[in-house]
Specification:
With 162 residues, this protein is of the alpha+beta class. The chain contains three helices and five strands.
Length: 162
């Protein structure tokens, strides 16, 4: 895969949940005068690893603003610091490099995105055998836990002061 993917590499992913990395993020005013936020997502696991798709957020009505606010907060944007559209434009690039789990659903000819979770990157704390975050095509943490053979906690917690 090229370091600079062509626009042709962006595609419409099928319904499902994807592990992604924010490749680019911006807020802009379109030629028609309407305001948008856009996050370019790059899939990081499974058969479509490396493919990119856009998450456009409508900032032009109350419903669009509510949906965008929820998504941007889940991506990790500090919404309390944004007072106007210029602040949003300045803040959007802070999302570049964030990892997220995003659900994609198609309805009535539109692609809908739900940001399930996000993190700023892989942990720098040694995992001692605990797997890294799940990517598509890999077993879940719940599938691996029995194989870790962790002994049960026999402590009755009598020493906890609450």
């Amino acid at each position: 895969m090229s370091y600079f993917p062509d626009d042709d590499d962006r595609y419409d992913p099928p319904d499902g949940t994807y592990q992604v990395r924010v490749h680019d993020a911006s807020a802009f005013t379109g030629r028609d005068g309407r305001d948008w936020a856009k996050v370019v997502l790059q899939i990081i696991g499974g058969d479509n690893a490396g493919r990119q798709f856009d998450h456009f957020m409508n900032l032009n009505n109350e419903t669009g603003m509510r949906i965008a606010r929820d998504a941007l907060a889940m991506y990790g944007l500090a919404l309390h610091e944004i007072e106007n559209f210029g602040d949003l434009q300045d803040a959007m690039p802070e999302l570049i490099g964030v990892y997220a789990e995003v659900s994609v659903r198609h309805k009535d000819g539109y692609r809908n995105h739900t940001v399930i979770s996000s993190r700023t990157g892989r942990s720098d704390i040694p995992s001692d055998g605990v797997p890294e975050p799940k990517t598509q095509g890999q077993p879940s943490f719940e599938d691996i836990v029995p194989a870790l053979d962790i002994p049960p906690d026999d402590d009755d917690d009598d020493d906890i002061p609450y």
